[in-house]
Design brief:
The protein is of the alpha+beta class and 86 residues long. Helix content is 31%, strand content 37%.
Length: 86
């Protein structure tokens, strides 16, 4: 509810990026806590989501790029094959 998926794109042969906007301004977000709470969910999704099987079979890197409601960069979370294939 607090996040919009703006777009998804291929960055290169092995990297797929999801672009998100959080519905809050940057100064109201504790970025480290956000990463700590969201990263395990993203990694679990990369590991278990059946829609992502073809990505797993091809060792794709998942990049999740986050900006705030004003378009300011917040963070990016990268999930590598080593993380989701364990």
């Amino acid at each position: 509810k607090e996040t919009w998926l703006d777009s998804a794109s291929v960055l290169d042969k092995k990297t797929f990026r999801y672009n998100y906007t959080l519905k809050f301004p940057k100064d109201s977000i504790e970025v480290e806590m956000f990463v700590l709470s969201v990263r395990p969910l993203i990694a679990s999704n990369a590991k278990t989501n059946s829609d992502l099987q073809v990505f797993r079979e091809n060792d794709v890197i998942f990049e999740h790029y986050f900006k705030d409601v004003n378009g300011k960069f917040l963070t990016r979370i990268i999930i590598t094959p080593q993380e989701y294939l364990q």
